[in-house]
Amino acid sequence: MTTAQETGHTTGTRDKDYDLIWFAEAALSNALRMELYRDDAERAGDSELADFFRRAQGESRKGAEQAKQLLAARLTAK
Question: N or C: which end of the chain has fewer CB within 10 A?
Answer without folding.
Answer: N
